[in-house]
Every structure is written in structure tokens, then in C-alpha cells.
Amino acid sequence: MFAKTSEVKVMRDPVHGYVHVQDQLIWDLINSRWVQRLRRIRQLGGAYVVYHCAEHTRFSHSLGVYEIARRMCYEVPDIDHALNEKEKMTVMAAALLHDSGHGPYSHAFESISHTSHESVTCRVIEHDPEIRAILENGYHGMAKNVADVIRHKSANPLLSQMISSQLDADRMDYLLRDAYFTGTTYGTFDLERILRTLRVENDQLMIKASGVYAVENYIMARYHMYWQVYYHPTARAYEAILRALFQRLKDSGMLEEEYVLPQFKALREGKKLSLEEYFRLDENACNYGFEMLEQCNDPILRDLSSRLLDRRLFKFTDYSPREVRRLSKVLKEKGYDPKYYLMKDEVGQRPYVPYNGEAGSIFVLMEDGSIRELSNASNIVYSLIHGPDRDEKKIFIPAL
Ligand code: ZN
């Protein structure tokens, strides 16, 4: 029922070898302006200031998530049997589009703009005329069904589990891709083994007992990538400066308008961005916006924007209320306003959480046919979730 491309299109990919496309609908989505925009958004926000090759984009990640979802649909026999053609197309489109609502600088931007990328993604899928027309051309009601996969409201829960759960195409692609582009080998795990041992029982995705070792490896990879890459304090220092800069942009009343990028104006006024304003706010635009601010009449904006462009980052130290008071005093003495020059953040991560709301659990199909939640089938995962939680709170300040 879905039109095929005249030949199978293949795109070289360092993680998957090739990304394969044979459906016209998927090809049209890849060529849409919202998916092409993802070439202008880096996958890892500020991590490239630490790992200099981490310049890969949300575009390549989105293709990778699509490729894993496609392989699940056609190469995992249980999924191939469980889904009809409409559901397969719906989940592959959702995989390709799942990050289309991402703003610049990854998650740092979500706190600046008070948006969540999931909600913008659903707006794009249901309201952008081009994306909506491509999907509705597939079948009537497809745009809503694709957005429902992202919202975990799909009529068939298996679709959401495939792209948004604790063992899903999204996480599997970003761990492998981010490990490859940062050069950190501890993010790798055996994707082929996981795909080979995936099973479906009662509409629930699970792993065969013999795949547990590969899943343990994946959970450990995730743990290491969070602390070594995603939460690297130097990358967080970069994001702290971004937050300070946008805060200052909101507070600076006497700013010369000609040095403020049009895309920054709605953010400055704290307005909800229209889809078109959001579309034009990519990392290329932001970098140009920072170059313009380097020439404005506000010394704090000049300084913060040149810190981002020239990588003159803040230093970091462990948080304590006493240290905040002491450093605020020192900063004031040196002429720095602590509102923009003393930033805090707290990060915490648990590599696996049993029965975790929408993300659910990872279930294991044992040899006797019984089903166990992962921490009851793996000693390593059991130890990991019963250990103390790890979180890290830091203060970021300029070198004094
Ligand atoms: Zn993603």
C-alpha cells in the first residue's frame, strides 16, 4: 500500500554501515525542511568543547534511529509478525522525526526557552504543512498516530517501546554514535546481539535470557557515557555560559536593537516561539547572533558571547552554600555580577530504573518461559540499582 522508491537508497553511515530507504514516504520526510534543519543542530550541544570531533548532528542520529527501527521491523521476526504495514511505517516515521523539535545546544536550550523538545516535535509532526502532508499522504490520520508514538499514547504500545523506552532505537543509536564521534570506546556494546535476541510477548518488547549479557553491557555503556561525556563538567561550563548569556539578554533594557539577532527577540521577550521562529533558531544562527552581540553596548553580553566563541570557559568547583557565599563576595570585589558569573547546576543519572513510568522496564524472557524484570535476571544490574544514587552539583565561575 505504501509507494516504494525506484531503487533502494543507501546512505553511508559510520555506525551502521548503511542506512537503507525503500519507502517514498521516508525519503520525502528525509528531504523535508524540518529534517534537513537537523544538520544545523549538533547532537551533543557543548560537548564538542571537550571532545573536538563531537560535531555530529541530530540529522545523522535521526537517520540512525530510523535504521535501527527499520531493522527491528523487518529483521526481528517477532516484531515483523506483530506489526502490520501501517504500524511499521508509523514507527519508522516516528523514529526519523523523534528529535525534529530539538533547539540549538541540546538540552541547555530547553531551560532557556522553557520548551521541551518532545512537545515541539509533536507540533512539527501535526502542524507543519509539509510534514503533515507527507504523512497524511501515507494514510489518513498518520500525523496524529506518529505524534502519539512520541507521546506514549499509541494504540499499540509496542511502537513507543521501540523508540522510547529503556532499551530502544533512540538510546542504542545515540550511545554508539556519541561513542564513535567522541572517540570513547566505553560507549560501545553489541547492537547485533541485542537485535538478534529481541522478542515480543503480549505486546511487550523483551530480551531473550541469552541476550542479557549484551544488555548489561549496554546499561554499563550508558552509565559511562553519562559521566564521561554527557555530564562532563567542562561541557556543562559551556552550557552555564549559554544560560547566563540568555538571562542577560532578557535583563538588558538598554541594548542596541541592531545587534540583536531577530531570532533572539522572541526569546528575549519570554514569548512562546512560533514554529517558524523555532525553525530559524539553529546553531548557525546562534553563532552569528553571538558574533553580533560581541559588538553591542552591553559589556556583559560582549564578554559572555566572546567566551562562547573563543572557548574562554568558566571554571568549576563543588557546590556548597558556604562556597557560593564566599565566591559571590570575591566576584563582586573583582567587578563581576554573580547573577551572570556564578552559575550552578546539578546532574544525576541512574543507568536503569525498574518500572520507570512511560519508559517502563526491560523484561527478560527466561528459558522456562517465565518473564522477569531485568534486575531480577542480572546480578550486575541488581547491584547497580541497589547502590547509592550518584549526583553531582557544581558551581561555575570565571577564572579569577
Ligand atoms: Zn534521539
Describe the structure in your own words.
This protein has 400 residues and is an alpha+beta fold. The protein has 21 helices and 9 strands. It has helices at residues 24-30, 33-37, 58-75, 77-82, 85-97, 108-113, 117-127, 129-138, 142-150, 157-163, 169-182, 191-197, 212-230, 233-251, 262-268, 275-280, 283-293, 299-310, 321-333, 338-341, 379-386, and strands at 4-13, 17-23, 198-201, 204-208, 315-318, 343-348, 363-365, 371-373, 391-397. It has a 4-stranded mixed beta sheet. Strands 5-9-6 form a 3-stranded antiparallel beta sheet, with helices on both faces. The N and C termini lie far apart (66 Å). The model has no long low-confidence stretch (mean pLDDT 94). The structure holds zinc ion (ZN). Zinc ion binds next to α3 and α11. Residues 61, 65, 98-99, 170, 174 line the site of zinc ion.
Structural class: alpha+beta
| Helix content bin | 40-55%
Radius of gyration: 23 Å
Tell me the number of strands.
9
End-to-end CA span: 66 Å
The outline comes out as: globular
> How big a fraction of the residues is strand?
5-15%
Q: What is the string of SSEs from the N terminus onward? A: EEHHHHHHHHHHHHEEHHHHHHEHHEEEHE
How would a textbook summarize the main sheet?
4 strands, mixed
- Are any ligands bound, and if so which? zinc ion
Contiguous helical run count: 21
Mean pLDDT: 94
